[in-house]
Amino acid sequence: MKINKITTPYAGQDELYIQALKKILAKIVPNGDDLTLERWKKLLPIIEWSKIGTSPCKLSFFLCCSSRPRVFRFFQEMISRWLVPGQWMNTTMQFAIDFTFQEDDTTLYTGAEVVLQVSTKKQLEQILKNFPIIETELRIGLGSSYQANRIMEIKGLSADEKTAMIQENIASVVKRRPQDFDYDIFSEMQHFLVLCKDEFKAARNYRHMSRIVCFHYLFRKALKHSLEAFPNRRFVSLKLLRVTISSHRGTKQRVLGLVIGLSFLQENELFEERHALKAIEAFIPNVKGVPGSLFINASKADPTRLIYLEVEKVNQAPFTLEETGLLKMELPDELNHCIEERYNPIFMPRNEEEILRHILVLSNQLKFVRDYPQAVILFEKQTGGALEFLVVLVRLVKKGHLPIQDYFEMKPTYLQFLPDRIRDVGHLRKKYRKEANVFRVQVRKDQYLRQDHSVDLYKARLEVASELAHVIGEFRDYNGGTISKENEIFAALCKSLEHTGKEHTFLLENFFYSLYPALMRSIMKPQLLKELFLMILEEVERGLSSGQTIFFRVKEEADKILIVIVSEDPYFRREVQKAVDLIGTIETPIATCFVAHNMIFCMGIIANLTEPRNVRHLRLAIEEALHAVVS
């Protein structure tokens, strides 16, 4: 293959163009006369640049590839616009021509040269840094029109003036604040522009969209820095923006924009628009999302999540300064609690032998004619919108009794009845038939979702038992005795705390149901629990002092000792629990609890230790455990 044997497909082509093409080919394909046609095709696309000097200077970028429509435009815009992101480089010369090799090949090729004027040392450094990335994108785009168009979209190289203004605005921000913004912000901008719909861009001005990009960039940067220092902690960033958007009718609308940054701790965590709205409604009721305003920047490989959402009141009233101030202070903590964990549904069919065992046990409980029906209520499964419980009920069938299903049909109830079987299991005094009923009931799941979107099965089971009593009459909840006692103590605790308990319901529930051993939830005095909870609440709201890693507080009285330990690291719990277990006995059990609030981890300890010697042993053991953790 001879480089000097080239021609153009256009008749009357000036010889000067052919000579210029030969110079380009000689620079990018040394020893071209020795190349075979097969080897030449394998080299394509060829991208080279001239020798680098010192600024100011001129740099030439050369291209040779298979010809297709607009291939030179793609090459020229990538070189002149994105070698130094945010700046249009001055192009002093650009040249392109299509050609073939005479007699050797009929394939049409494109040869091109673009010369840039490099004015400063910083521009030259940026070119050296970015060219390998641009070269990779060029090779992808030169091989496919689809890929080239896709890259052009991602780069934001459309004719849309608003997009160009966003680019220019962000470039000026980078220039003004180089300590906060680097040129990698343009990658954030490209991702935002590609994911946002045209309707979103049309309704918002370029300054507002530039602010979204900048805040997302800063949030991601801060979150990654924080995660490097504390990989096991969750971080939440929030910025509220007063926004004016335009409708397709040309009218203006004032809404509230929320820029949110989150760090996820597990792969199965989920945060969507409904979670954000639920958190906002905890402080401002009757709020809804603006249609089409949601933007989520997320990746499976990245633990950070960046969200943008706009909200408005149902009655179209503006947000007051007091409301936005409240959201700034309280919403980050509420968002932290609203992150949902997704779980795979459990496939575990109920063991038939277990059901028969329950029937036998309940049947043996019916010894007198006046005995109430005996029932076992077991959680069965959850679906997308419902919780299902299995009920095994054994009763004495007396005169006037109806089938269980008839009671559900006669009385209004929110329980959905799903019959399974009815079986006779013997007689009492050879007169009263013992009847075993096995059925399932379903309730809506959404009314039992807690603040963190976990399902409150305790509450659901209690209400199912109460509603069953309403439908079929009074019965004995055979396996609900402990649960009822726990509920009784928890209700007494809530009542004693009054307004404080209502204000911190989520923390109070976590506190009570974290009590260990679990038996303590049904025997501990509510007044003791109240004292410990108020101590914990006081410490987690106060937080740790600057430079403090762990805090240890003791309240000692004649017949009891209360201890609260606060830290930003949850791993102290294991060592402290070991120390407590060594001191506690069956005669003098020690109760512990563990809660997290505002990224502060707190462990509480209650002990009824009447002997001063045991009190000293407990304090010493805890101090030694904490010393081991700190060191």
What would the keywords be for this entry?
631 residues; five-stranded antiparallel beta sheet; 43% helix; single chain; 4 domains; alpha+beta
Structure description:
- Helix content is 43%, strand content 26%.
- The chain has 631 residues and is of the alpha+beta class.
- The strands form 5 sheets. It has a 5-stranded antiparallel β-sheet with strand order 1-4-5-3-2, sandwiched between helices. Strands 6, 7, 9, 10 and 11 form a 5-stranded antiparallel β-sheet that branches. A 5-stranded mixed β-sheet has the order 15-16-14-13-17.
- Helix 10 crosses helix 11, helix 15 (481-497) crosses helix 19 (526-542) and helix 20 runs antiparallel to helix 21 (612-630).
- The radius of gyration is 36 Å and the shape is elongated.
What's the SSE blueprint?
Blueprint: E1 6-7, H1 15-28, H2 37-43, E2 46-49, E3 57-66, H3 71-82, E4 90-101, E5 109-118, H4 121-142, H5 145-155, H6 161-176, H7 185-195, H8 198-203, H9 206-229, E6 236-246, E7 252-263, E8 269-270, H10 273-281, E9 287-289, E10 295-299, E11 302-313, H11 321-337, E12 340-341, H12 352-365, E13 374-382, E14 386-397, H13 404-410, E15 416-428, E16 432-444, H14 457-472, E17 476-477, H15 481-497, H16 499-503, H17 505-513, H18 520-523, H19 526-542, E18 550-556, E19 561-567, H20 572-583, E20 590-597, E21 600-607, H21 612-630
Parallel strand pairs: 13-17
Antiparallel strand pairs: 1-4, 2-3, 3-5, 4-5, 6-7, 7-11, 8-12, 9-11, 10-11, 13-14, 14-16, 15-16, 18-19, 19-21, 20-21
Helix pairs in contact: 3-4, 4-5, 6-7, 6-9, 7-9, 10-11, 15-19, 20-21
